[in-house]
Amino acid sequence: MGQPEKECERLREEIALLRQRLTELTPPLEALLKRRGFTVYKKEPAEDLLVPREKYIDSYYQTMKRYSFRLFLRDIIKHQDGFTRQDVTRYATAEVTEEYTDYLLKIGLIEEVSGGYRLRKRPIKSFGETLEWFVAEILKREFRMETIWGIRFRGRRVGGDYDLIAKLDSGLLYMEVKSSPPRQIYASEISAFWSRTWDLCPDMAVFLMDTHLRMKDKLVVMFEEELRNRFENPPQVRRLKAELFTIEDRVFIINSKPSIEGNIETLLSYYLRRRCL
User: Fold this and answer.
1) In the CATH hierarchy, which fold is given to the domain comprising 26-46+145-275?
2) Which of 87, 98, 178, 226 has a C-alpha 20 to 30 A away from that of 165?
3) pTM of the predicted model, to two decimals?
4) All structural domains of the chain with their residue ranges
5) Model confidence pLDDT, tens digit, residues 208-240
6) How far apart are CA 119 and CA 246, in angstroms?
């Protein structure tokens, strides 16, 4: 590593330390929510959470960074009562499917049965809770952000779950996390996201879809329609880069290509730099 690279690495470490110190000096997340009149009623439900024992959490988190593994887990949930390796090879090669199957056996999430495998914990309704947990872990581990997921508030006009809320320095980040492809997203979900954003008034709001498909063709169009329904002079949906879009530099629409953590880093860097202008 050359001198410039060493200097950049040192600066990154110092920035991370400063952010950690700032987080420690500012009020905790639930206090920031309470200032807005929000009291957490429930959070982080475990009924449909598909994670291993603590000793395997770190390796599971790292493996979850692979898009093909997340797709594999969705297929496993779809066939949770019984499947063969051939049933879950839609998104990976036979060799990768074998690797993933052996890994899930090792960490105890699946078990062998006559003719194949099945999930140990059943029933699991969807991949949604596990994806919310994973994205929350990204914010905690990679960006040192205090984060909660699967949140319900008591006594609010706007109902439903807030998928993820994090402390963004002394402000709030709200994120909707979707595991479905764009064709399975409906206008009512976009409207609910806007209603929650309006009610919570976070400093930054993100609509994240765990897909490598294009966002412009359908999802951006749905956001534009929702904006026309809500505003007399609707703000523009503007492309930042690739499949990352912004509305007035406060609301963001993103997918997971090339990676969830990379796209979140791009948004945070963009947002925080814009605040300094």
Assistant:
1) Trna Endonuclease; Chain: A, domain 1 (3.40.1350)
2) 226
3) 0.89
4) 26-46+145-275, 54-119
5) 999 999 999 899 999 999 999 999 999 999 999
6) 39
> Does position 9 have pLDDT exceeding 90, yes or no?
no
The whole-angstrom separation of Cα 97 and Cα 87 is 10
Question: pLDDT of 86-118, one tens digit each?
Answer: 999 888 889 999 999 999 999 999 999 998 999
Q: pLDDT averaged over the chain?
A: 92
The Cα 47–Cα 140 span in angstroms is 22
Question: Do residues 136 and 175 lie in contact, with contact meaning Cβ atoms separated by under 8 Å?
Answer: no
**171-178 and 204-209 strand pairing:** parallel
The whole-angstrom separation of Cα 150 and Cα 46 is 10
Length of the chain in residues, anyone? 277
Q: What is the 3-state secondary structure (H, E, C) of the chain?
A: CCHHHHHHHHHHHHHHHHHHHHHHHCCCHHHHHHHCCCCEEECCCCCCCCCCCHHHHHHHHHHHCCHHHHHHHHHHHHCCCCECHHHHCCCCCHHHHHHHHHHHHHHCCEEEECCEEEECCCCCCCCHHHHHHHHHHHHHHHHCCCEEEEEEECCCCCCCCEEEEEEECCEEEEEEEECCCHHHCCHHHHHHHHHHHHHHCCCEEEEEECCCCCCCCCHHHHHHHHHHHHCCCCCCEEEEECCEEEECCCEEEECCCCCHHHHHHHHHHHHHHHHCC
Q: Which residues pair with 171 in a beta bridge?
A: 168
Name the CA dihedral angle for 148, 122, 126, 159, rounded to a multiple of 10 degrees: -50
